[in-house]
Amino acid sequence: MHPPQTIAATARRPAHTRLLWILTGLVLTLLAGRTFLPAVGVPLLLLAQVLFTLLHGARRYGRPAVTVFVVVTLVVSNALENLSILTGFPFGVYHYTMDPQVFLVPVFIGPAYVATGYLAWNVATVLVGEVRRGSGPLTVVGTPVVASFAMVAWDLAMDPTLATVRRLWIWENGGGFFGVPFVNFLGWSLTAYLFLQLFALYLRRRGPEREPAATATRVQALVLYAATALPFFLTYLIGERTTVTDAAGHTWRTADIYETSALTALYGMVFIALLAALTLARQVTNGADSRPAPRSSDGRRPR
Fold first, then answer.
1. What's the Rg (C-alpha) of the chain?
2. Which long-range contacts (CB under 8 A, 24 or more apart) does 96-105 make?
3. Which has the closest alpha carbon to 48: 101, 107, 105, 115?
4. Of 120, 172, 220, 288, which residue has the fewest beta carbons closer than 10 angstroms?
5. 102 strand-pairing partners
6. Contacts within 8 Å (CB) and 24+ apart, 11-18
7. How far apart are CA 55 and CA 207, in angstroms?
8. Residue 303: Cβ within 10 Å count
9. pTM for the whole thing?
């Protein structure tokens, strides 16, 4: 007989899965609405994304592990953002124009790192491998590296619009990528890699010894990672056509910025999500093919 706690846990799984699918649908709706109602959509979107991270992470890794992920991400991202604002390292010279702030960084920046960083991590676990207690160095290092690229693919599409067009932050010396400097993306790579690597090291030493995540759980994260590119396509279609001038005095056409953002999202984020989806489908198929063939009515396996 199964122990009572096992039966209770099994009974909770369908409800937990349904709740995560509801959150997935809510995030998809808010991603689309963010383009039309940014003042309302962004706070609700971040709330829904962080809630998804907490619930999904607790399901995959347990509450202690997802708590470590959130804390490490918030601390590392805020520390390096503040360091860069003060010194120019690692992102370059910039400042934010939004309030309220944690030191010199707006409060919504940390949750954005948490939400998108977690989705990027899930993509990398499909492409490279699950990090578990006792995992080898190739997986422990390779998964954060690939996840950091998936994370920066988002910023590559996002930064020119939010900085140069909407001026939520100002690059004081401008930059060649529509007013954004090259070093910004190197800084993102370093920051994302650091907090993801710390999380991987935690999982290797203290993470739960769990079975691989269910296929539905993985699909939810892949869907949301791919859907994060949706606002870039919508903005390309309906965004205002005008010109903007960055802090260095260079003038850019917003139509060119929106088109480039949509292209980088398509061949960056969407490509990464497609590659992960195909990898997951192959894993599921191979897993099904590796199961023992059913016996025939006479007790023999079919040849």
1. 21
2. 96/168, 96/169, 96/170, 97/167, 97/168, 97/169, 97/170, 98/168, 98/169, 102/78, 103/78, 105/78, 105/81
3. 115
4. 288
5. 105
6. 16/55, 16/59, 17/214, 17/216, 17/217
7. 17
8. 5
9. 0.89
Model confidence pLDDT, tens digit, residues 83-142: 999 999 999 999 999 999 999 999 999 999 999 999 999 999 999 999 999 999 999 999
Q: How far apart are CA 233 and CA 27, in angstroms?
A: 16
Q: Is 208 helix (H, G, I), strand (E, B) or coil?
A: coil
Give the amino acid at 92: G
Over residues 202-231, the pLDDT tens digits come to 999 998 776 667 889 999 999 999 999 999
> Omega into 90 within 30° of 0, i.e. cis?
yes
DSSP state of 267: I
- Interatomic CA distance for residues 183 and 88, integer angstroms: 10
Pair of tokens at residue 300 = 């023999």
pLDDT at 219: 96
Q: Distances from the Cα of 157 to the Cαs of 54, 123, 248, in angstroms?
A: 26, 18, 21
pLDDT, tens only, 40-80: 678 889 999 999 999 999 999 999 999 999 999 999 999 99
Which three-class secondary structure state does DSSP give residue 181?
coil
| 161-198 tens-digit pLDDT | 999 999 999 999 999 999 999 999 999 999 999 999 99
Q: What is the pLDDT of residue 5?
A: 44
Residue 250: which of 186, 168, 160, 188 has the closest Cα? Answer: 160
Burial class (CB in 10 A: 0-12, 13-18, 19+), 230: middle
Residue 94, phi then psi, degrees to nearest 5 = -160, 170
- Name the average pLDDT for the chain: 89
Quick one: how far is CA 65 from the chain centroid?
A: 17
